[in-house]
Specification:
Strand order of the largest sheet: 6-7-8-5-1-4-3-2-9
Keywords: Transferase
Distance between the termini: 21 Å
Largest sheet: 9 strands, mixed
Helix content: 10-25%
Organism: Chromobacterium sphagni
Order of helices and strands: EHEEEEHEEEHE
Structural class: alpha+beta
Low-confidence stretches: none
Radius of gyration: 15 Å
Number of strands: 9
Protein name: Glutathione transferase
InterPro entries: Glyas_Bleomycin-R_OHBP_Dase (IPR029068), Glyas_Fos-R_dOase_dom (IPR004360), GlyoxalaseI/FosfomycinResist (IPR050383), VOC_core (IPR037523)
Strand content: 25-35%
Shape: globular
Number of helices: 3
GO molecular function: transferase activity
């Protein structure tokens, strides 16, 4: 049972237009989808989510997600729960996720899925005002 590396980075932002422009135009992130309160981009193999959050200055929804295989997800969740690791959010999106805190309060996530699987789920049930871009990420 192992983690497979970084899955995605979610950044809480206070101005979606400004942040989208910065990551896309200034840093060269490839756009994949955007909606009223967020957007998905990628930088190399990194899936980057921008999430509009008025509390961004205090950390808000910013968190780091690690990839885990579906077959290992329940065991990882049980391991962390049994160790008393606090949960900070319930999962409401595609793919199994467990949101937890490290000893310093950093927001982390175990996630089963990829940018490609998230975009497929969003195409089936788009978020409000969602727009998709032509370039598809590699699975």
């Amino acid at each position: 049972m192992k983690l497979n590396g970084l899955n995605h980075l979610t950044l809480a932002v206070t101005d979606l237009d400004r942040s989208w422009c910065f990551y896309h135009a200034q840093l060269g992130a490839a756009p994949h989808a955007r909606w009223a309160r967020g957007g998905y981009l990628s930088l190399g193999g990194l899936w980057l989510c921008l999430a509009l959050d008025d509390a961004a200055s205090g950390g808000g929804y910013t968190h780091y997600a690690f990839s885990v295989d579906q077959a290992d997800f329940a065991a990882w969740k049980a391991r962390l729960t049994d160790a008393g690791v606090p949960c900070w959010k319930d999962n409401r999106s595609e793919g199994d996720s467990f949101y937890f805190l490290d000893p310093d309060g950093h927001r982390l996530e175990l996630h089963v899925g990829s940018l490609a699987s998230r975009l497929a789920a969003c195409r089936a049930q788009p978020y409000p005002a969602m727009v998709f871009y032509d370039e598809e990420p590699k699975p």
